[in-house]
Amino acid sequence: MKTFEDAGFWLDSVRGLVQHEPDIYLVANRVDESGKRAVSKQLAMQFARKSRVHYHEVSAKTHKGVPELLEKIASRILGKTVPVVPTEARKETYAQQRACLGCMLV
To answer: Disulfide check for 32: which of 59, 71, 86, 95 has CB 3.0–4.6 Å away?
Structure first.
């Protein structure tokens, strides 16, 4: 519950560091343990709407929702990426990162 209570502080902190509206994701974990839920789905979704952030539920234990979340994030990144020419020193790392991102989308 403490993590959820502090979410507003962290959102304000992140938004204070950038000059544009960042894509922020509020991710509820442990949805496989619904009986132990400290924050209701309704409250979390209401907070996400009010705070203008994306909301997603996952279970790190069972991987439920994780692939969909990664695909959503990768799609948003790729849709907003501005093509740049990497420096010579970064070309290999850049190619590896692009290959790994492609693997996530498969």
So the answer is: 59
Q: Nearest-CA neighbor of 31 among 13, 58, 69, 71?
A: 58
Domain that holds residue 77: 2-105
Mean predicted confidence (pLDDT) in 59-68: 87
Q: What's the CATH number where 13 sits?
A: 3.40.50.300
Amino acid 52: pLDDT: 94
Residue 45, pLDDT > 90, answer: yes
Roughly what angle, to the nearest 10 degrees, separates helices 91-105 and 66-80?
130
Rounded to whole angstroms, the Cα distance separating 28 from 25 reads 10
Degrees to nearest 5, angle at CA 70 with 100 and 95: 20
Contact between 6 and 13 (Cβ < 8 Å): no
Report d(CA 43, CA 29) in Å as an integer: 14
